[in-house]
Design goal:
globular; 10 strands; alpha+beta; about 650 residues; 7 domains; 4-stranded antiparallel β-sheet
Length: about 650
């Protein structure tokens, strides 16, 4: 147990507190400091999202008032990410920070896959440093200054300065370095209020400061999406008549709002050629976590600060608040608010959100979103699964001759025809005793010719045969598909119960149903030329390299060539052979990415060390954990090093 631990300062990183402990204890051994603090040699100096915090709390001096939650909320960077995470994932990350295994924390936050890198060096504000020395007698690392997107100090309007302390020191992973040890005399660089780029950076820094210190909202991805959609749909130019967002128009306005220098400097570039850029994903129904910086850029574009946006009351919840009712009339939870969760999907037919609700009785229904009042929650659009409770009730009602079909339908909450269809599916005895008399009592105006085929599908084939012969006689020369579309129920019955007769009474096969014959050889030649050009464009693109795969090439093609490649590649043998030659292996793509990075360094007159290139390559999700391509990367790096050497020499 520690006999002493420094008192944390406002907005101080836990990394900084540990560094001050090491400095005040005058302990020159990094491993000894880690062992003192965490009682294990496996801990390392992580500046942003450390783990093993419960070990540290258990090891603090007696009488301390610190908790793991206090350390996470006040001295780590997690509050920056919290409002933009699902609640269950946030709980899991907090548990991992408290426990001993923190290897997946950055992956769960989307930092690794988001292509937004953390600063390479710890940063400081010259004015904050002087103020801290006067107030506390020493300066320290502020957590606000270490986040991507914070280029200026929001308190003093001063640009941040880089120290020479690495945020990820691969050689000295247990080293804590205090700001006092690295004090640098730097002249403050104030923000220019007349510069649009400076003002945007200042607003973003202020939003991030609020997220770190004052925000306690965790609305969830669905609530964020609903807020985005409700704001965007107020602009009629950005929404179609069916309610879909015009992503390309939104992208155009977004790029006019932000100068390209800001988007690129904040590591949030937008490629107009891609249909799957981060802005498009942000306004679709949420399926993945996005970096908070991208949310903040979009929120600012919508005209809100982070505080104003997250405090907005959601005006419309398409399916109301949990819980939701079970709508199975024979379930004990009927119309009781029993269902706690639902699964939501985007209905592409009518561009409406559709939610599926499932009760533990087995009854599953879905309904589309609407603007109707609360009573609308007792409505369903369609029943997907009836469930065991509903089916057992139907079986019991079915064998009771005293209950009419109308009574059964009312008891089960469906129509009479639905009762008959489900009875047939469950292989119940057809017809029921006195069923025709009961049907005539219920529906005296219903013709026997309509009732009979519903009740006795197996024993009424003559009726369906005559229907099929009549439709063939009325439509001479019409093909099988069109005849089937005219009377689908009759065709289905004959195909299921009288297939041999149906085969003998089908019209002759037509060649392509009258449609022109496709010249696949000519299409193959045209597609092959387009594929060559698309692959060449992908290789010559100056933007971040794209892995040349069949899908990437197909996405670059125009319609209908793209559809031919995706859906009819088996009809295009020349194109298929060419694609197999053009696509890149993971090793080839990794080498091309490294060469592209080297060219970018040359253009920007930057000459990084070899280990920095290796580190950047290792961060890439395409190359990480692929030992087979390490030789290829090393070879490319050697070529890059030679190229950089010649550039320096010249």
């Amino acid at each position: 147990m520690l006999g002493f631990f420094p008192t944390p300062y406002p907005d101080e990183l836990l990394y900084s507190i540990c560094a001050r402990y090491q400095e005040q204890m005058n302990d020159s051994s990094q491993t000894a400091t880690v062992l003192d603090l965490f009682k294990t040699k496996n801990a390392i100096a992580i500046f942003d999202l450390p783990s093993k915090l419960q070990r540290l709390i258990n090891n603090l001096p007696p009488g301390h008032a610190y908790t793991v939650d206090q350390l996470i909320d006040n001295h780590t960077l997690l509050p920056f990410y919290s409002p933009f995470l699902p609640l269950d994932r946030l709980k899991l990350i907090r548990q991992e920070m408290s426990g001993n295994n923190g290897s997946k924390i950055h992956t769960r936050l989307g930092i690794v896959a988001g292509f937004i890198e953390m600063p390479s060096y710890l940063r400081f504000c010259p004015v904050c440093m002087e103020k801290d020395q006067k107030q506390f007698g020493e300066c320290y690392w502020h957590r606000l200054h270490q986040l991507p997107g914070v280029e200026v100090c929001p308190t003093h309007g001063i640009f941040l300065e880089e120290s020479n302390v690495l945020t990820h020191n691969r050689k000295r992973i247990s080293e804590f370095v205090s700001l006092e040890q690295k004090i640098q005399a730097v002249s403050p660089r104030p923000v220019d209020p007349s510069n649009n780029t400076h003002t945007v950076l200042l607003r973003i820094a202020r939003d991030i400061e609020w997220l770190l210190n004052d925000c306690r909202f965790v609305p969830g991805l669905e609530a964020l999406y609903q807020k985005y959609f409700s704001i965007v749909k107020n602009n009629r130019e950005l929404v179609t008549y069916t309610g879909r967002i015009r992503v390309q128009e939104l992208l155009r306005i977004f790029k006019n709002y932000y100068p390209a220098i800001i988007i690129n400097s904040l590591q949030c570039p937008l490629n107009e050629k891609s249909r799957d850029h981060w802005l498009a994903k942000l306004v679709r129904y949420p399926q993945m976590v996005h970096h908070p910086l991208r949310h903040l850029l979009f929120i600012q574009f919508l005209g809100y600060t982070a505080q104003e946006f997250l405090q907005l009351q959601q005006t419309h919840k398409p399916f109301g608040n949990a819980p939701w009712p079970c709508l199975n009339p024979v379930c004990k939870h009927f119309k009781k608010l029993h269902i706690r969760e639902y699964e939501i999907t985007d209905n592409h037919k009518n561009s409406q959100l559709t939610a599926t609700f499932a009760c533990n009785c087995g009854f599953v229904y879905y309904r589309t979103a609407s603007d109707k009042p609360l009573d609308d929650q007792f409505r369903f659009s369609k029943i997907k699964v009836y469930g065991s409770v509903w089916e057992e009730s139907l079986k019991q009602f079915w064998v009771d001759p005293s209950i009419t079909l109308k009574d059964i339908s009312q008891s089960l909450g469906v129509t009479v025809k639905t009762v008959l269809r489900q009875a047939n599916r469950l292989n119940l005895t057809l017809p029921r005793p006195n069923i025709m008399a009961k049907m005539n009592e219920v529906y005296p105006s219903l013709k026997t010719s309509i009732i009979s085929p519903i009740l006795t599908p197996i024993h009424n084939s003559e009726y369906h045969r005559q229907q099929w012969l009549d439709i063939m006689a009325a439509n001479p020369g019409v093909g099988r598909t069109k005849l089937r579309s005219k009377i689908p129920a009759v065709y289905s019955h004959l195909y299921k119960y009288d297939r041999e007769w149906l085969k003998q009474h089908l019209p002759p096969l037509q060649s392509n149903n009258g449609s022109p014959i496709v010249d696949w050889y000519r299409r193959d030649l045209e597609t092959m030329a387009a594929v060559k050009m698309a692959a060449q464009q992908l290789k010559e693109d100056d933007e971040r390299p794209t892995w040349i795969t069949k899908t990437a090439i197909a996405n670059c093609l125009e319609h209908p060539t793209s559809s031919w490649v995706k859906k009819h590649l088996s009809q295009l043998p020349l194109t298929a052979r060419l694609l197999a030659e053009l696509v890149e292996t993971k090793e080839e793509f990794a080498v091309r990415r490294v060469m592209w990075a080297a060219n970018m360094f040359c253009k920007e007159n930057v000459y990084p060390k070899r280990w920095q290139l290796v580190y950047r390559a290792s961060l890439d999700p395409q190359t990480r954990e692929l030992p087979l391509i390490q030789n290829a990367i090393n070879s490319a790096l050697e070529s890059c090093a030679n190229l950089l050497y010649l550039q320096q020499k010249s």
